[in-house]
Amino acid sequence: MSSRPALVRSIPFWGLVAASLGTAGYGALVLTEKLGTMTTTLTDGTATGVEVYVGQSQAVFGAVLVGAGVVGILLALTVASLATLRPSAPVEVVEPLDWDSATDDIEDGSVHGYERGLGYTAAVETVGRSDEDAEREASAATR
Question: Which residues touch 64 (CB under 8 Å, ≥6 apart)?
Answer without folding.
Answer: 27
